[in-house]
Amino acid sequence: MFILITVFVNLALSATFTNAIFPDITLHECALTKGCLRPAMCTESSCAFLVTWKLVSVKSENYVEFELRGNVQKVTGFIALAFSKDQRVGDDGVVGCYYQSSTNTVNIRAGYNDIGGKTTNFYNGPDEELLITDGENLGGTFNAMDGTLQCRFRRRVRPLDTVHQLMDLTSPNAYHLIVTRGVERKKDGFGRPFAGGESVSQRPVVITSPIYGSMTGIIGRGSAIAKTHGCLMVLAWVLCASIGIILARYYKDVWPNSGLLGERVWFQSHRILQGICVGLTCISIILIFIYCEGYSQATAYPYYIHPILGLIVFSLALINPIIALCRCNPAHEYRPWFNWIHFFIGTFAYVLSVPTMMLGLRMPAAGLQLQFINYPLWILIFFVIFQFIIEITLEIHGCFYYRRNKNKRRTYVLEIDQYQAAKRLNNARQPRPPEPEPSGRMFKYFIIGLHATVCAIVAVILVIIIAVN
């Protein structure tokens, strides 16, 4: 019974949002009978967006038949195509479509951007036949199951109304094609793209050229704010957190007679590095909330997982220094509890940051190139293996020198006791015995130098990849 109900609901949804007469937009005629614009990784079953065009004649007048298809994530979403003189959204002409749930139709509209390209306004001028949206195979559909919106329409090659940046498509006029997908339109125009929802052709296109091409070289614009978010997170967790954790776990007995800003070297270094990590994480979270205008709108798998993991890492990163501020005296009975809690929270946040960064490299806001290249992920995987090897090496090293350093420490405690006793007896100013340098310290110096160098190199490489992709 449940299966029958499920099938009925799915059929009802399909009937509600889909026009059965409308033929699907496909790839198989690309570069043969129509021009195409699509991502590099695009198949019939899986394609983030697809734009096609071909020249047709309607009543002895030239029109371009456009097809737009894309995942818009929500029922309120839209897909639009802008004709730009450069690769940036500016005062450009726009065509696109959106699903109108109140009338159960896909509306197709022409429009124009303002000079800054921040808002799009629908065209309501005198050229009533600028667009032809009714007729055989014209119109559109919306699939509520996977969030795919598609529409097919015809646009006059040379608009009768030349105002409002409607763009003359006659040859030799060439334009960069900018595909925009968003989750919510405005009342009088198309809205902002969602994260990663804007893609641009690498070269200008003569729409009315008789030679059709299939363009797969797409610049998926990664937002500068989103890129900054990613770069800061890499610096925080690959560079600062990695070195800070190693120092706190394996270098407490190193540099025993040296200080940094009034504290032991390992402690002050750990505190500074982890403080920078938390600060960069906070700035990064603020930036991405500004970019998304709140919480992420990503609903597709696996993109929606990244913000969830990111907020968990952020919360743990905030909690741990607060706990550290409340730490008790080293001799207090609850100090072991603090040590273990601080250790587990820090370790969990650090381990969780790795898959979070890996997912972040695949987020649409990072740009289409990062979505389809694998070497940044392999760099991260190499770094994870390297970090693991460093920790295992230091653990083995610590076990090897454990007895020798324990005996040194025991001898030092006896020397301190003798020093305190002599000081009480004669009040003589005797030099305090220096703490013993740990055995195997030269190897540990080499390891921390190697580790810090590799962390810095990996962080710089990933930052460059994110910034320039």
Question: How would you describe this structure to a colleague?
Answer:
By secondary structure, the protein is of the alpha+beta class. It has two domains: 2-220, Immunoglobulin-like, CATH 2.60.40; 224-401 and 438-468, Up-down Bundle (Four Helix Bundle (Hemerythrin (Met), subunit A)). The chain has nine helices and 16 strands. Strands 1, 2, 3, 8, 9, 10 and 13 form a seven-stranded mixed β-sheet that branches. A seven-stranded antiparallel β-sheet has the order 7-6-5-4-11-12-14, with no helix packed on it. Helix 2 (224-250) runs antiparallel to helix 9, helix 3 (265-292) runs antiparallel to helix 4 (305-325) and helix 7 runs antiparallel to helix 9 (441-468). The longest helix has 28 residues, at 265-292. The chain is elongated and about 115 Å long. The two termini are 51 Å apart. The chain crosses the membrane at residues 232-251, 272-291, 303-325, 337-357, 377-402, 445-468.
Descriptive keywords:
16 strands, Four Helix Bundle (Hemerythrin (Met), subunit A), single chain, 7-stranded antiparallel beta sheet, disordered N terminus, 469 residues, elongated, 2 domains, Cyt_b561/ferric_Rdtase_TM
